[in-house]
TrEMBL record:
Protein's recorded name: Protein DPCD
Species: Paralvinella palmiformis
Family per similarity comment: Belongs to the DPCD family.
Domain of life: Eukaryota
Amino acid sequence: MNRVLLLTFVYKMSTAWLENLKSAQKTCLVQDDRKKIHFTFQDGTEMAEEYDINTGDLLGELRKWHKKGTLGGATKWEYEVGEDLMLAKPLLTEGLMESSSNPIFVRKDTKQTFQWRIRNLPYPIETYQVTVDAENRTITIRTSNKKYYKRFSIPDMDRIQAALKQDDLSIAYANNTLIVTYKKPKEVLDLEKAVQEELKKTKAMKDGDVECNPS
């Protein structure tokens, strides 16, 4: 697929995702300088996000999904951005405390980048090899000592079928934490801007929820 066709395809996918957001039932709440938005899509899938009320930025704490189970029952919330703080704490199971030294993989974005932090990795930066699989739109983290392996995708890129590039990937290491950063392409930045414009149309109340009519 040549570049023009590829960009046209990505644009169509971006438009489709934006229209999906517009048609979703939305509930809005402003609390503690955060704008909390709950989406219910036509297939029953739910998404919850939190935005900084002053900057409009998606907070690192939250984008999570709730999908119907295969038998129609309730499922747990799945975190796309941020983490479940309850699960982040060591769990006591049958008298045994879960190790607090296990690697913890968390996505925390910035305005211009996707970013993941893998805590509790005590190996020097030269130990890590982080590569892009462009064909499958995945990123793989592996260590030369074979102590850690992780393959993951970027849902934001998958939703618009955008390709990943090795040149847009970088890593850093500090305080036993590997930081993997991927530069957001223009298509994602444009989509995020359009989403923000759409969310400005939603009405929110500080003292309770209000239904936001689909645009």
